[in-house]
Design brief:
Length: 251
């Protein structure tokens, strides 16, 4: 398994989770540092890094869900077509790398549609009077990530379109993963009944562990991504009026 495409995809999932956890820790540290008003946390380099960090986190979270789908699909295909030499390539590590790169590229296109509208608005920052070490009337440039209002007000290819599409993309894994998991379990049972080897380099117990892993990932994906995807779709289908969400076409 350590030399299979499944392991490579699983490593990709772990890398996505590790980055997103690190991003959460980073944001928590910044919240603590913001309490010290003597440091300009909104300088250009910091804000540029923060924007790219948000974009990459958005990309990897979406990719994470689809890597789970593809891992289940690869396992299903390896078992179902284990006797067909034409499908041997899907168990190779290079196939797992290709899967990771393709999903990363596709997820980047979705995130790029939103983050490409970001720009940094400039202002001036001056330290509070109680902050030592600064000369009199000292100022620095102050940058805030902004998105044009036109992007939010645009009916087509605007913020609501992005939220609706991204919401659908988040919901798809919660539908496909249970189906693939059931197919995978059924295929493993069928292989056992026929006395077939699930993999030439893998014991049956290892395959069962992989199936359990996919099952756990299915439940986790449904819990984590399903409600968020539904919320995104609703937000993309609605508009706010005086703090109340009204669906389009409703007066």
């Amino acid at each position: 398994m350590r030399t299979s495409s499944t392991f490579v995809i699983l490593a990709g999932i772990a890398a996505c989770d590790f980055y997103n956890m690190g991003a959460i820790v980073y944001d928590s540290v910044i919240v603590v540092l913001q309490k010290n008003g003597c440091w300009n946390l909104y300088n250009y380099n910091f804000q540029l890094f923060r924007t790219w960090k948000m974009a990459l986190s958005n990309i990897l979270r979406r990719e994470n869900s689809y890597l789970g789908i593809l891992m289940a699909l690869v396992r299903y295909s390896v078992i179902k077509y284990s006797m067909d030499a034409k499908f041997e390539y899907i168990s190779k590590p290079i196939f797992g790398i290709i899967v990771f790169m393709v999903t990363f590229f596709c997820s980047s296109l979705v995130s790029g549609f939103y983050f490409s509208h970001f720009y940094l608005e400039m202002s001036e920052w001056s330290p509070p009077e109680q902050c030592p070490g600064y000369p009199v009337n000292y100022t620095e440039m102050y940058y805030i990530p902004m998105v044009p209002l036109e992007f939010f007000s645009s009916t087509w290819f605007g913020f609501q379109t992005y939220m609706f599409v991204d919401g659908l993309i988040k919901i798809v894994p919660t539908i496909l993963l249970p189906i693939l998991t059931l197919l995978l379990i059924a295929e493993i049972r069928a292989a056992k009944r026929m006395g077939m080897k699930i993999s030439s380099n893998m014991k049956k117990s290892q395959s069962e562990h992989t199936t359990k892993l996919v099952t756990v990932m299915t439940v986790a994906s449904m819990v984590a991504e399903g409600p968020m995807g539904l919320a995104y779709v609703l937000q993309g289908s609605a508009e706010k009026s005086m703090g109340i969400i009204w669906f389009k076409g409703r007066s």
